[in-house]
């Protein structure tokens, strides 16, 4: 039976019940019957209109929110005030005139009518939803986060057939302890999670906090892993597809969550101002950093987005993603080697880029140790060709992606990245193109990085190979690194080498153990960790700045700029000769000799 029919039937009855209560009799005089009919018809119309305007007949009351309830209460109050005027003054002037309904009857009727309107709607939401959840539940859940997202989680747990029953909230806000959220108690803090899991026989822990930082996620995961139960995360409502319940979007914790730092909001308007309506080009767009750069640039509304990569498969995937998500965006996909400036220029069809993000490079350290000339030709020669092309076309801004391996490089790959920084400094201020570079450490999940390698080893071999138990690296989520690159590009006025705040370095072996736990296994029992020794070109520990450098803050707390305190180029003549040979395509062993002269940290040429 619809709520409209129920309202009509109940609201027709409440005035009669109110009059019977007032006169303590169900026998009404002819005058009282006439008066009751006049009042009832008017009051019924007032209340139905008020309820309709409040959305009482369109809301899904089984999933009622606080907003739905507040609108209904407002409708009840407004309609009660109007019924008071109707019964106390208007009714006596409706023929036959001369009779007025006692105010006590009207007040009793308003109370009964409010109950009649509210109770049927909230009965299933407040009573049946909770009872059904308790009856059907098979897993007991502790929810971390007694806030808005936790409330949404609780609402879904109570109204959807999830088989999950919330036994309590956990929150570090001590002012919430001992209180309850929608009838579910806030039991304690995250530090008490281990004992709370045992005391309440929890089978699952759900983190319901918007953008939780990695330290919190790790604390929760450690407690739940020690108890042998799973931890899941509630995504932010903006990340949940329309029509999907929050509980249906629950996901397992991944390595990004463990390393995530508290989000720092930058000047998003400035980033949009740099990109919106402009022509933006991304090199290496088929790779991990390049594809994320393409996605985030696309979200800023460029007029044209030019993607360049010689990796056909990677280009196919990122182009398909962008076209599907931004059908109005003009995407130009150029499958070309970064050194082929003529092909790239011809493929631009006259669209001169306003901003170029240069992410194309060979990045795998051991592989580049075996192919040092290829690393030089691609990373340095390709960058030189791109810079010449940008200057010839009058590109407004070029941002070069660098690496922490450029600091006191011990590998050919790191040395080539250091050379691209030197080239940026060398050319800055000599044309109208604004140059800058951004240096940061490892990004999680990039192709060929340790995370996908470890996950593959966990699933296929039940063993992980780690080079050394003390080896550390800086890690950052790809999306976070790219967002900061965009922020840095806005800050540039020319010639800056920016360094991102990477947090503290992390032991590779700790990362491996985290991945084992996230896979639902126990390190050293289910999955063995084997140490294989360092490989050629690898350092035990990376650094973000060299001895001859110092960091200065910028207006963004997660982006710093390098101030050079010593000599930047050890052998300028060798650098000039290296450039000349690369431009002339003189690919021979002399390139490596020159590389070692320019980057003395590499040591003597073997």
Structural write-up:
By secondary structure, this protein is of the alpha/beta class. It folds into three domains: 127 residues, no CATH class; 117 residues, Rossmann fold (3-Layer(aba) Sandwich), CATH 3.40.50; 335 residues, Rossmann fold (3-Layer(aba) Sandwich), CATH 3.40.50.720. 47% of the residues lie in helices and 16% in strands. The protein is built from 20 helices and 22 strands. It has a nine-stranded mixed beta sheet, sandwiched between helices. It has a seven-stranded mixed beta sheet with strand order 3-4-2-1-5-6-7, sandwiched between helices. Strand 21 and strand 22 form a beta hairpin. The radius of gyration is 34 Å and the shape is elongated.
Features of the shown structure:
alpha/beta, Rossmann fold, 3 domains, nine-stranded mixed beta sheet, 20 helices, 16% strand, elongated
The CATH architecture name of the largest domain reads: 3-Layer(aba) Sandwich
> What is the distance, rounded to the nearest whole angstrom, between the alpha carbons of the first and last residues?
87 Å
Strand order of the largest sheet: 10-9-8-11-12-13-18-22-21
The tally of strands reads: 22
State the helix count: 20
Unreliable residue stretches:
131-137
Mean pLDDT: 87
């Amino acid at each position: 039976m619809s709520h409209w029919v129920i309202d009509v039937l109940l609201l027709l009855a409440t005035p009669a019940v109110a009059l019977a209560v007032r006169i303590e009799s169900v026998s009404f005089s002819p005058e009282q019957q006439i008066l009751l009919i006049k009042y009832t018809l008017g009051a019924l119309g007032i209340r139905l209109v008020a309820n309709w305007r409040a959305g009482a007949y369109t809301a899904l009351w089984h999933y009622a929110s606080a907003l739905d309830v507040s609108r209904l209460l407002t409708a009840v109050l407004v309609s009660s005030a109007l019924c008071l005027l109707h019964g106390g003054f208007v009714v006596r002037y409706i023929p036959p005139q001369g009779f007025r309904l006692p105010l006590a009857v009207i007040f009793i009727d308003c109370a009964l009518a409010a109950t009649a309107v509210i109770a049927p709607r909230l009965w299933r939401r407040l009573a049946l939803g909770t009872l059904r959840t308790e009856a059907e539940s098979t897993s007991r859940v502790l929810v971390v986060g007694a806030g808005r997202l936790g409330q949404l989680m609780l609402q879904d747990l109570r109204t959807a057939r999830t088989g999950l029953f919330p036994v309590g909230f956990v929150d570090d806000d001590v002012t919430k302890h001992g209180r309850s959220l929608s009838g579910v108690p806030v039991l304690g803090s995250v530090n008490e999670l281990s004992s709370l899991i045992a005391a309440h026989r929890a089978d699952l822990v759900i983190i319901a906090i918007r953008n939780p930082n990695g330290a919190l996620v790790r604390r929760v995961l450690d407690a739940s892993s020690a108890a042998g139960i799973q931890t899941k995360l509630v995504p932010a409502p903006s990340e949940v597809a329309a029509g999907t319940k929050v509980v249906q979007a629950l996901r397992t914790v991944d390595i990004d969550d463990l390393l995530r730092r508290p989000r720092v909001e930058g000047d998003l308007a400035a980033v949009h101002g740099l990109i919106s309506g402009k022509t933006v080009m991304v090199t290496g767009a088929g790779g991990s950093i390049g594809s994320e750069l393409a996605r985030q640039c696309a979200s800023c509304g460029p007029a044209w987005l030019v993607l360049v990569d010689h990796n056909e498969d990677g280009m196919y995937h990122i182009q398909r993603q962008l076209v599907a998500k931004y059908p109005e965006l003009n995407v130009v996909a150029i499958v070309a080697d970064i050194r082929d400036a003529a092909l790239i220029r011809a493929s631009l069809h006259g669209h001169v880029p306003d901003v170029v993000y240069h992410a194309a490079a060979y990045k795998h350290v051991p592989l580049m140790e075996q192919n040092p000339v290829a690393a030089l030709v691609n990373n340095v020669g390709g960058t030189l060709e791109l810079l010449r092309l940008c200057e010839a076309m009058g590109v407004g801004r070029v941002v070069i992606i660098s690496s922490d391996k450029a600091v006191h490089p011990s590998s050919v790959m790191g040395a080539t990245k250091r050379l691209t920084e030197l080239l940026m400094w060398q050319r800055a201020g000599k044309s109208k193109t604004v140059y800058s570079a951004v240096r940061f450490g490892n990004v999680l999940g990039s192709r060929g990085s340790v995370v996908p390698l470890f996950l593959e080893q966990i699933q296929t071999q039940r063993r992980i190979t780690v080079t050394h138990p003390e080896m550390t690296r800086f890690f950052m989520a790809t999306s976070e690194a790219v967002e900061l690159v965009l922020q840095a590009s806005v800050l540039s006025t020319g010639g800056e080498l920016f360094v991102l705040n990477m947090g503290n370095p992390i032991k590779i072996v700790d990362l491996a153990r985290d991945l084992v736990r996230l896979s639902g296994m126990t390190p050293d029992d289910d999955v063995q960790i084997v140490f294989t020794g360092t490989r050629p070109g690898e350092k035990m520990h990376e650094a973000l700045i060299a001895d001859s450098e110092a960091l200065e803050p910028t207006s963004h707390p997660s982006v710093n700029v390098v101030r050079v305190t010593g000599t930047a180029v050890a052998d300028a003549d060798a650098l000039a000769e290296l450039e000349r040979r690369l431009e002339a395509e003189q690919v021979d062993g002399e390139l490596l000799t020159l590389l070692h002269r320019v980057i003395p940290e590499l040591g003597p040429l073997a």
